[in-house]
Design a protein that fits this description.
Blueprint lengths: L11 H6 L8 H8 L18 H13 L5 H17 L11 H4 L1
Helix pairs in contact: 3-4
């Protein structure tokens, strides 16, 4: 690959000696350009050990529905939790769906 005529080729040692900082990862550039935060989770975090579904349902419910008071919010979340638990019942209840239960 040839260098442009207006930019002479130089080694990394020369460039770093002059104070140039190297960032060669396209992921980092696209993340910054898209204003995306980089968040990492620690190992053993409940969100990566199976409890993410409960968190996602709660977050989606709170964001989608606007309730007047905390009691309405609690009742709505209890309905979603009951529907999720209903999905784990034995197959004798298979005539009903989760949506039919709520």
């Amino acid at each position: 690959m040839s260098q442009p005529a207006d930019r002479p080729s130089r080694s990394n040692k020369e460039a770093s000696a002059q104070g140039q900082i190297f960032k060669a990862h396209a992921f980092g550039h696209s993340r910054v350009a898209g204003d995306i935060r980089l968040r990492t989770t620690k190992t053993g975090n409940p969100r990566i050990n199976g409890q993410i579904e409960r968190h996602a349902v709660k977050a989606a419910t709170v964001k989608r529905f606007c309730h007047v008071n905390r009691e309405e919010t609690r009742q709505h979340l209890c309905g979603f939790a009951a529907a999720r638990s209903f999905g784990r019942w034995p197959k004798t209840h298979e005539s009903l769906t989760r949506h039919g239960f709520v």
